[in-house]
Design brief:
The protein is an all-alpha fold and 62 residues long. It contains one helix and no strands. The longest helix has 54 residues. The model has no long low-confidence stretch (mean pLDDT 86).
Length: 62
């Protein structure tokens, strides 16, 4: 019985460590995705400003 309890504690400890590693990986992945999306939207905004300056989009709206 003592060995079974020890094994259960070891297993629970391993599951806890596994859960922490998984959560860290999720956070790391989300950080990378957010960084890539930020770079994309930044370049999209730059492209829109450049095209607006070249094509004079919106001159006829006012």
């Amino acid at each position: 019985m003592t060995r079974l309890i020890k094994t259960d504690k070891d297993y629970a400890s391993w599951i806890e460590e596994l859960s922490q590693r998984y959560r860290k990986s999720q956070i790391k992945a989300a950080t990378h995705v957010n960084s890539e999306m930020l770079q994309f939207y930044w370049s999209l905004g730059r492209d829109i400003v450049t095209l607006h300056a070249k094509s004079r989009w919106g001159d006829e709206i006012y």
